[in-house]
Amino acid sequence: MGKGDKRTAKGKRFKGSFGKSRPRKKKKNTKSANLPAPETPATQTDHSG
Length: 49
Hints:
By secondary structure, the protein is mostly helical. It has helices at about 10-15, 30-35. It starts with 8 loop residues before the first helix and ends in a 15-residue tail after the last helix.
């Protein structure tokens, strides 16, 4: 059980794979992804004359 063992978390870290012993992290911060882009104020045109 070491780097060569695909069944352990250490082996999965070494190989760069995921599974039961090394699950993928779920994104917790989904607030910023769901927010629309900030609205830019409309530029005012000069209608004075």
